[in-house]
Amino acid sequence: MSYTDIEYEVRGNAAIIRLNRPEKLNAFTYHTLREMRQAVDAAVADRQVIGIIFTGNGRAFSAGLDSAVLASVTSGETEPTTSTRSTEELPGLFSYLLQVPKPVIAAMNGVAAGGGLILALMSDIRMASRDAAITTVFLKRGLIAEHGSSWILPRLVGVGKALDLLWASDKISAEEAHGLGLVERVVEPHSLLDDAVAYIEKLAVTSAPAAIAETKRLVYGHLGKGFEEALREAEISQNEFVARDDAREGAMALIEKRVPEFQRLGD
Fold first, then answer.
1. Tens digit of pLDDT for each residue in 18-66?
2. Could you report the per-residue pLDDT of 96-146, keeping only the tens digit for each?
């Protein structure tokens, strides 16, 4: 598939989606969002792909919604539509990533602001270059905590820290974000993408793709459930998975002291 606003590459077991509007700090237009969704769908369908990586070309990860699009929306000229699919989906920018059955890594090479931060928040793991910087920015534009950030951000950093990040909208460094628990890893700029790919390659060797998908589903689903309901659901799932071929393969690989060969996900 040919893209204009992104670049798509499969490297080993990793699908890399590079935002490619560096002159606009990789800001999103609706066309960009459609291309990103198409690339994610392609990665999900590809049995070679174990995980998906988002990063940006140039000096920014993403500055969020393109200023021209934002002006059009706030003036009432354009409907504030953010979903590229049906109304049955979860509302909010990039919320569909929470339901993607493969790991999603945000490799934050530079500034992540507004919608760019939402992309990182809706990814499963955030790796940041030491050159990266983060700001929520919404309230500085007269907007609220948008696109699910009021749900995910407190769960990552705590209520008080989340409110501070949202209200003040200060720009913080990658190291500060790591200290808050907003970023899982901070790495040198030259090794950011290689480290993200290496993480996916590690999963390709060690972990069953179906189990990765089910664990992701349980973790996000259980954020909104009580412990009793969560434990009962987990028991049903674990009883199902222990009878699968992957569990038998994992046990035999341990006994035979070899790398397991788990079933892949995709069409």
1. 999 999 999 999 999 999 999 999 999 999 999 999 999 999 999 998 8
2. 999 999 999 999 999 999 999 999 999 999 999 999 999 999 888 888 889
Helix, strand, coil percentages for the chain (3-state, nearest 5): 50, 15, 35
* Residue 102 shares a structural domain with residue 31: yes
Centre a 10 Å sphere on the Cβ of residue 208 and count the other Cβ atoms it contains: 23
Per-residue pLDDT of 190-199, as tens digits, reads 999 999 999 9
- Whether residue 143 sits in one domain with residue 14: yes
Taking the C-alpha atoms of residue 46 and residue 41, their distance in angstroms, rounded to an integer, is 9
Domain identity same for 94 and 219: no
The CA–CA distances, whole Å, from 129 to 115, 132, 161, 258 equal 19, 5, 22, 35
